[in-house]
Amino acid sequence: MVLAGIWFAFLISFITRLSWSTIMPTAIDQLHFTVQQGSSYLTAFYIGYAITVLPGGMLADKFGYRKLLLAAVMGNLVVMAAMVFMHGYWDGLALRFILGLVSGPDLSACLGIITEWFDGKKRATATGIFNTCTSFGLTVINIYAPTVMVHYGWRSALGVTALFPAAAFVFAWFALKGNPPFPQQFGVKESNGEVIQESSIARLRKAINNRSVWMLAITGLFATGAKWGVTNWANLYMVKNLQFSVITAGTAMSIFGITSVISMIIAGWISDHSKWSRHVWAAIFMAIFTPTIVLFALTPHGNLAWLYFATGAMGVGAFMFSTITNNLSVEVAPADQKGTVSGFINVFNQVGSFLSPVLLGALLAGTGSYVTSYMVVAVFPLIAVVALLFVRESDADKNQ
């Protein structure tokens, strides 16, 4: 029930953030927006999200993971309901920015809840199952939103989207009740048994003095950047460069999504049932990513079998490691700093997500070659592999 609660809660975060990109072609025509104005709504969300991922994690450490997650879900509900009534460019832009702000604490809170309810032998498997909601969110929004929009308009599509956080709030409220076996610690226990409450700034200072935290931040910067860079450009590459149809490209990306979901669950199970350290498995899974990017970039024109195999393999390479790295982001943290540490690392993840598409665009403009652009990005996971080799899980979490 707990796992279902956080899965549903984080799923709606992806549904609400992806809702605008789904309805944008119709909405911008009726609102008389330019394509650039419509695209700025996507950017506004991620700017707001990047601003609050760290303070959101710090607040989760201070007030509790369950409270912050429920607050994020409620924030999604309020903003999506308000967007139904937007009329001008600026009010919609402000609402998208606010949606990013209220969504900031969600990942840190969810990962914190996993550490409260699952021990070290089950935690990575739970994280792998939890991670599947990111891929599933893209599927859900594309199942209902286009149909609702065609028959009832884009405002109705946003209204239906607002029902998801409403349902998630009620479900998570009951699913996350109870006393976890490994409850969150709100202070540092001294040798004399006294528990000392630390300020949020003190927690942050300790977090950034941790070598493993910085190594995971570097991993996130390069690996997450490569993941979303190649993912966001895949359809464009297949259609514009390889000359496949839009339908074929969509089929290939469906295979990509299926293999990514399966690989995330398998990665968690392997990590939980192996004597090897998590950072070793993360490095192994990360190393798979580079050859899969190369394989995809070298797809011959018209070779469907190669295309489908390459996109499926790249789905494994792009997402398999994320189960373990998400797990490590809370396992390297002291017991009272899990939200702060995961929020700090997530800042670098978001920066990588911003910069990678920009870099790909600059490389394409400079070289005129999609293949060369992908080959450069293929180096990023190798940098992340080196960083992962310097990560060490905390002794406290190993002994849970």
UniProtKB/TrEMBL annotation:
GO cellular component, one term: plasma membrane
Protein name: Major facilitator superfamily protein
Topological type in the membrane: Multi-pass membrane protein
Sections of the chain in a coiled coil: none
Transmembrane found in the keyword field: yes
Residue intervals passing through the bilayer: 41-61, 68-87, 93-114, 126-145, 157-176, 213-230, 242-268, 280-299, 305-324, 344-365, 371-391
Subcellular location: Cell membrane
Disulfide bond in keyword set: no
Domain of life: Bacteria
UniProt organism field: Paucilactobacillus vaccinostercus DSM 20634
One of the GO BP terms on file: phosphate ion transmembrane transport
Keywords (A to Z) from UniProt: Membrane, Transmembrane, Transmembrane helix, Transport
Gene3D superfamilies in alphabetical order: MFS general substrate transporter like domains
Record GO terms (molecular function): glucose 6-phosphate:phosphate antiporter activity
Pfam families, per database record: MFS_1 (PF07690)
Broad class of the protein's primary localization: membrane
Domain Major facilitator superfamily (MFS) profile: residue ranges: 1-396
